[in-house]
Write a structure and sequence with these properties.
By secondary structure, this protein is α+β, with helices and mostly antiparallel strands. Helices cover 42% and strands 20% of the residues. The protein has helices at residues 3-10, 20-27, 83-88, 109-118, 120-146, 149-163, 176-182, 187-197, 214-221, 232-236; strands at residues 31-35, 40-42, 50-56, 59-63, 70-75, 79-81, 95-98, 102-108, 169-171, 202-205, 208-211. Helix 4 crosses helix 5 and helix 6 (149-163) packs across helix 9. The longest helix is centred in the middle third of the chain and has 27 residues, at 120-146. It is elongated, with a radius of gyration of 19 Å. Residues 231-253 have low confidence and may be disordered.
Length: 253
């Protein structure tokens, strides 16, 4: 494992502040593997044999429990997934596949459970990681329920523009149908959403997007500190809380 990989791992909530021997025990028997795009890493309703940590690339978390498949989350570096299933020694509630070439560390699930009983600091770190994941879920629920599809798209564009360098342009890093599923929209609604946002400074060509006026898009998106924590846009532009009447129902899903 590269030295920079070690440093990335130590910054994760689950390893921050734990004993060096605990960290070494977790890493020693783990598998660091490179996967091509489109690799199925795990299936829902199957036992959680490993804790997965994304070091490079993008991973799609999805569910098809009702027969129809939807995208639950898209994870990049450095993030982990199925921690709850690992701790509970239970089946996975989601499937996972790589959207891009990825490097992923696979930590044996049984080892994680052993370390919980041996290192109090590791147990505390796991609690903080689970609490962080819970807050992320609540934010996403708020995002889905309080915003129209087009407003969810607008806020995603603002965040992704920042993540890709803040140069008022970005590239969608996966297929549009995946973005639509992630935002809780149909492909048709996504297309209509981009059409609506053209009046707010958004120009799209293929997967390339240019944002002519960040302030104008922000005024439409109305980012919130309770949903979009860490996004510079709600810090730079003061906006009032979103109300149900201000939601664009024509684009909601």
């Amino acid at each position: 494992m590269r030295p920079e990989d070690i440093e990335k791992l130590k910054c994760l909530n689950i390893f921050e502040g734990v004993k060096e021997c605990t960290f070494a025990r977790a890493i020693a028997p783990s598998f660091l593997q490179s996967f091509p795009a489109g690799t199925r890493l795990l299936e829902e309703n199957r036992p959680a044999d490993f804790l997965y940590i994304v070091l490079e690339g993008l991973v799609e978390m999805s569910s098809s429990a009702t027969g129809d498949e939807t995208v639950i989350e898209i994870l990049g570096p450095v993030n982990l997934f199925i921690l709850a299933a690992v701790i509970n020694n239970d089946v996975c509630l989601q499937s996972a596949r790589t959207l891009t070439p990825a490097r992923i560390l696979m930590v044996p699930a049984s080892l994680i459970r052993e370390l919980l009983g041996e290192d109090h600091d590791f147990m505390k770190a796991v609690v903080f990681e689970l609490a962080s994941a819970y807050r992320r879920v609540v934010k996403e629920l708020s995002n889905q329920k309080l915003r129209s599809g087009t407003q969810r798209l607008a806020n995603w564009l603002l965040k992704e523009e920042r993540n890709q360098g803040g140069e008022r342009r970005l590239t969608i890093p996966f297929e549009k149908r995946i973005l639509a599923a992630y935002l809780g929209m149909t492909a048709e609604n996504l297309s209509r959403g981009f059409s609506t946002l053209s009046a707010h400074g958004v120009n799209i060509k293929g997967l390339q997007i240019d944002i002519a006026d960040i302030a104008k898009l922000t005024a439409y998106a109305r980012p919130s500190s309770l949903i979009d924590e860490g996004d510079r846009n709600f810090q730079e532009h003061s906006v009032a809380p979103l109300t149900a009447e201000q939601s664009d129902d024509d684009n909601a899903v």
